[in-house]
């Protein structure tokens, strides 16, 4: 994954391609410590997920995937 400090409005999105439905626990350097598929995850709350990766600084959701606008695919 590449994590950018960008925000895009709904008007700036291309075609919806699908979804990933993953949560990733990452440390302060951006290293993924734990990744879980939301549908099959073995946690009840985000707190439970954080307990599985105590060194995690952030929990990032990866949900919908869109094509780049005006993508000529």
Percentage of residues assigned to helices:
under 10%
Give, in spatial order, the strands making up the sheet with the most strands. Answer: 2-1-3
| Domains (count) | 1
Q: Order of helices and strands, N to C?
A: EEHE
Radius of gyration: 14 Å
Which structural class do the helices and strands define?
A: mainly beta
Low-confidence runs: none
Describe the structure.
The chain has 73 residues and is mostly beta strands. It has one domain. It contains one helix and three strands. Strands 2-1-3 form a three-stranded antiparallel sheet, with helices on one face. The longest helix is centred in the last third of the chain and has 7 residues, at 46-52. The mean pLDDT is 84.
A few lines on this structure:
With 73 residues, the protein is mainly β.
Layout of strands and helices, then pairs:
Blueprint: E1 16-26, E2 32-37, H1 46-52, E3 58-66
Antiparallel strand pairs: 1-2, 1-3
Descriptors for this entry?
73 residues, mainly beta, globular
């Amino acid at each position: 994954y590449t994590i950018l400090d960008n925000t895009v409005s709904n008007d700036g999105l291309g075609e919806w391609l699908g979804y990933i439905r993953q949560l990733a626990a990452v440390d302060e350097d951006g290293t993924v410590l734990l990744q879980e598929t939301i549908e099959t995850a073995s946690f009840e709350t985000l707190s439970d997920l954080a307990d599985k990766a105590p060194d995690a600084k952030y929990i990032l959701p990866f949900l919908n995937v869109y094509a780049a606008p005006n993508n000529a695919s």
